[in-house]
Design brief:
It is globular and about 65 Å long. The protein is about 5% helix and about 65% strand. Strand 3 and strand 4 form a beta hairpin.
Length: about 280
């Protein structure tokens, strides 16, 4: 059923005639809902996200895939991201609230990119009463930390960067990320994303993420990827390697409105995400 839903958005991209003309926009608002099923367990949950972005200058979409226009144009921006995760199991309920305020800045007339922001987390746990005990509920305070990003954009459509978190030593956690949008014939294009992260805070692990999106034209894309994680064993956990896969599609029905769908098939959980974006 979930994969059938993914095929609907792909088919709709071929059957509709979007008004994808050369246009500009300066802000966008995105919303998403994600259904989460924990594999082999009764636990289930969901994710709700809302993100708003304001670009310092209007973004020109001419000759670009609509989803990649801001990236290709190196559009500096400020954004706010709000999210809520909820998990339930046998009456237990855990809510995790997350909010981010950040900025992406491309230094004019150079190849350099910098970013920064503040992450905040808050959790709430509740357990209903039964014959043995009363209901339990407690909530944490907001926990804040900052992050910075630095990278280079040596050619059009390519960005390579790293991200650093507050109070985390580079020797304990570091990463390298890349994204490259390659124009093909006509309106077709290919987006390639890759990242590697190493961390040795609680136990050593290496995570490799790869993804690619093929743009049939300026408005419709289909993509897939994987996340491979390797964990070293210690007194807290066993060594293991996991590989999770995902597929995704996005369709701009007009030059300023899109719908996207993704399905994530993991060793420990499966997720189905539905999202939409409007631009102004």
């Amino acid at each position: 059923m979930k994969l059938k839903l993914l095929s609907i958005i792909i088919a709709a991209g071929f059957l509709t005639s979007p008004f994808a003309v050369a246009a500009t926009y300066q802000s966008e608002l995105s919303a998403s809902y994600e259904d989460i099923d924990v594999t082999g367990d009764s636990e289930e949950g969901y994710f709700v996200g809302l993100k708003g972005t304001y670009y310092f200058s209007p973004v020109d979409t001419k000759n670009h895939p609509l989803a990649e226009a801001a990236f290709i144009e190196k559009a500096s921006n400020v954004y706010i991201d709000l999210a809520n995760y909820e998990f339930k199991e046998s009456g237990d309920r855990l809510d995790i609230y997350h909010r981010v305020l950040g900025v992406d800045f491309y230094v004019p007339n150079t190849i350099f990119y910098v970013g920064a922001g503040v992450n905040q987390y808050k959790s709430k746990y509740s357990l209903p009463s039964d014959e043995s005990f009363d209901a339990v509920s407690f909530s944490s305070k907001w926990d804040s930390s900052w992050y910075i990003k630095a990278g280079v954009a040596p050619v059009t459509g390519l960005l390579v960067w790293s991200e650093f978190e507050e109070d985390v030593d580079v020797s304990e956690q570091w990463n390298i990320n890349g994204k490259y949008v390659i124009p093909l014939s006509g309106e077709q294009a290919l987006n390639i994303e890759a990242s590697y992260e190493y961390q040795d805070i609680y136990s050593s692990s290496d995570t490799i993420t790869m993804a690619a999106d093929y743009y049939f034209d300026r408005h419709l894309s289909l993509g897939a990827g994987f996340v491979n994680s390797s964990y070293d064993g210690n007194e807290f956990n066993h060594s293991e390697t996991t590989t999770d896969y995902f597929v995704r599609a996005r369709n701009f029905f007009t030059d300023k409105a899109s719908l996207e769908l993704s399905y994530y098939d993991g060793d420990y959980e499966n997720r189905l995400m539905l999202g939409g974006t409007v631009r102004f």
